Known about the structure:
Helix content is 33%, strand content 24%. It is of the alpha+beta class. The strands form three sheets. Strands 1, 2, 3, 8, 9, 10, 11, 12, 13, 14, 15, 16 and 17 form a 13-stranded mixed beta sheet that branches. α1 (2-17) packs antiparallel against α12 and α5 (128-138) packs antiparallel against α6 (143-156).
Amino acid sequence: MALLFIMSLTGLFVMWFTQYYNNKILENLILSKDSETTKSWIDPNPKYDTFLKVHIFNYTNIKDYLEYKADKIKVEDLGPFLYKEHTTKVNVVHNDNYTVTFRDHRTYQFLRDRSSHDENVSVVVPNVPFLAASEEIEKMKNPFTRGLSMGAVRAAGRHAFYTLKVKDYLWGYKDPILNIKKTFLGGDAYFGLLKNRRGTSVDSLQVYTGEDDIRKFSKITQFNGKPMLDFWTDEECNRIDGSDPSMFPPHVVETREPLSVFLQVFCRKVPLLFEKEVTIYDNIDALRYRTPLNVFGNPEENPDNACYCQNTKRCMPSGVINATRCYDDAPIYPSFPHFFSGDPIIYKDFEGIEPKQELHQTFADVHPRFAFPISGASRIQINMALHKGDLVKGLVRRLDDGAILPLIWIEITSGDFTPEILDTLYASTFGLNLIEYILKYGTLLMSIVSFSLIVASFYYLARRREANQMKNEKILTAELRALQNGDMSTASLSQLQQQQT
């Protein structure tokens, strides 16, 4: 019983006052070389594929607006165009400092039956290569080169807005303007807003595997081989200390601390703040995190964003990021969809921009133990800024210089939850919690029972000893009384004396 008590007391201490059980469970997350977890991470089962939902801003009356026949630009949110996204890891290298370096490789399958339109539908959209060329030409110092380039681009482009098929606009087509640029300067002749997303990423990441410390798990240590960004002016803004959006350090969610996510499209880290505990998918518990409303606020609204403005020509109103430095000076200005949480002055000339929290804010429902997103939506909008140089100002006289033109917005969500996946979620939530509950309260009960048995045993032995002592005293008293009455023989008296001795 003493041994049982010591064992149960040890188990009680481990289960109630240490993280041993939890840490042993979390060891399954570690990305050690050649482990089953790492193999699944490199080439995941397609049943865990995510969805990419694309919405395109269709400029339905842009011709009338530019000719002063309409008061505002009408944009139609056309979508979603739904794609099944399968992501694998390539160029995987395990390093000696408990990190792993890799690139993402993505493939896409269009799901017509779950999309609003076919990919071959036509849309009226900004002529991004033509408009982007305006600023590039203005930077040319040689007047001859500038004039020659302007003539060539005008001949190839001519229109600030044009009609394209959705498939070409998203995934690429051979653009005549980029073809001219390729001829003289090199580069790619194909343009597509999501062209670089398909195939192997041009960017590489390095993250902690968690082998030496599970608290470091999934934290990014390098982006394209560098421990710091060089896009911004402040060290805090250039730090790469966020996590990959697909996984977070598990110990952070235990304390409900803010999560930090590094988003390549924004070229910066973005915080996610704990909002509340939620129940999803038939009683599966999760922790809901959301982006702060002022995360892209102007420095006057959010002073932490000051360093994102100090090395740019324009410090944007709240809601839009000047990411030109991150995109090789291309006029890319990301935001949340429909400029959610942004200053309405950004879209004052547009009709059809309707920001709504439930549709356009990024959120994540995180597993409370393993800290991976169970569900949620990562939502990003791609915009461009108009530069009214000599190339385009005659075509877009009515638009303001620097006007932000929305192009598309995307939403990345978890895939379909099959019964098999739900069973896995139940096992990782209820099964492990039940085992932990049994071990915690089982060791507590065994400690109480074994301690009670030890106490009862000592009590029983004490009572038995007391009973024997009383019995002996009764015998002694009876024999003494017999002696006094002369009934005891000399032999009995000798025996009594020996017993007393």
